[in-house]
Specification:
This is Lipoprotein. This protein is an alpha+beta fold. The protein has one domain (22-185). Helices cover 25% and strands 37% of the residues. It starts with a helix and ends with a strand.
């Protein structure tokens, strides 16, 4: 009986620890963008406020902005994922149908928390990086995805970051990029 429990525990540890890449959810404490493995993008506006506003008022305001934007841009859709106010900190999290949508919505709402020209995500097994200009991944770097970013933003990724170009510092699944950078992540 003990052997059965030990085998089950070992299998559980293998499946949860060694069997796959850790996924990170997006719970930012600062204005930033989130890049998922499939290339889906999110952004967050996080600001300290000095008012007695409530989360439902913030959500209503954000939904009105989204409705107005989506009416004008039928092909580029935005969704609200979170609208909260806690301890005088307001947080809005949006998801987008494309990078162009994120860029246009930022212009529409006058969001200047990021300044991006492009964001592209590829699976490293599906592309030949050696044929891409300006990309040189050092030997020994492990990862499954590459996010190619042009612009300035605080970036979160769905998987653990293993490398960021231009000697940009990173921690776990976050990095601050400025200019042309690429991020390798699991």
């Amino acid at each position: 009986m003990k052997k059965g429990y030990l085998a089950a525990a070992a299998l559980l540890l293998f499946l949860t620890g060694c069997g796959g890449n850790k996924s990170y959810s997006y719970h930012p404490d600062q204005s930033s963008i989130f890049i998922s493995r499939d290339g889906t993008l999110k952004s967050a506006l996080v600001e300290e406020i000095d008012t007695e506003a409530k989360s439902d008022e913030l959500e209503s305001f954000a939904n009105t902005e989204i409705e107005d934007f989506n009416k004008l841009n039928a092909n580029n859709q935005v969704k609200l994922e979170d609208a909260t106010i806690k301890k005088n900190v307001a947080k809005l999290v949006f998801s987008y149908s494309s990078f162009e949508c994120m860029e246009e919505f930022a212009k529409f709402t006058q969001d200047n928390s990021f300044d991006l020209n492009s964001v592209e995500v590829y699976s490293l097994k599906d592309i030949d990086v050696s044929k891409m200009n300006s990309i040189d991944i050092p030997d020994g770097i492990k990862g499954d995805y590459i996010a190619i970013i042009d612009g300035k933003a605080d970036v979160y990724t769905e998987g653990e970051i293993t490398y960021v170009s231009n000697d940009i510092e990173f921690d776990d699944n976050t990095a601050k990029v400025d200019g042309f950078n690429y991020i390798i992540f699991k």
